[in-house]
Amino acid sequence: MTWTAPQIERTTVLSTLGLLPERPLLEGWLTWHRETLLVKCAGLEAARLATATVEPSNLTLLGLVRHMAEMERWWFRRSFAGEPVGEVFAGPSDGDEGFDGVDPANAERDFERYRAEISASDAAVAGHALDETFSLTSGAGLSLRAVHLLMIQEYARHNGHADLLRERADGTTGD
Q: How far apart are CA 5 and CA 153, in angstroms?
């Protein structure tokens, strides 16, 4: 039997976020974007998830899932929390982590790793103030607030890519 990305039931409704305090607002937008990536993949078989559909780019929906698992780990766990964890998926350290090595045979595993990284990321920042800061290896400082904003923009950009990839895969549009 061929693995198919599961349907996703959204837990966040955008219209409910507008009047929330800052932390729930940021977490709500992040959750919405995380779910959007999964919605873009829902119902596609592993082979379709691993197929580049916008030539000449080699970008795939499965590659985006893998990349965002890397970004979750990098920003929340490795950078902010200082956890001594390696990469989720081995690959280049040029901003394209997770895009290479996409294999439909590993799609279910890759999705589970993505979900696990979200859980681990949420746990890594639980109880920390948005104003809490850390230093990057470059010496630049960032706050947890900035990391949330950074991840929201990272997801927003890549969810735009996912829109195009999904439309080319089977004509599905919308979120």
A: 24
Which residues, at least 6 apart from 88, have a Cβ–Cβ distance to it below 8 Å? 66, 69, 70, 73, 98, 113, 117
Q: Find out whether 131 and 95 touch, Cβ atoms under 8 Å.
A: no
Under DSSP, is residue 101 helix (H, G, I), strand (E, B) or coil? coil
Q: Which residue has the tokens 């895969």?
A: 169
- Whole-angstrom distance, CA of residue 142 vs CA of residue 101: 31
Convert the pLDDT of each residue in 30-67 to its tens digit: 999 999 999 999 999 999 999 999 889 999 999 999 99
Best CA proximity match to 67, nearest among 102, 33, 36, 35: 102
CATH of 19-170, one of 3.20.20.450, 3.40.50.300, 1.20.120.450, 1.10.10.10: 1.20.120.450
Kindly report the pTM of this predicted structure: 0.94
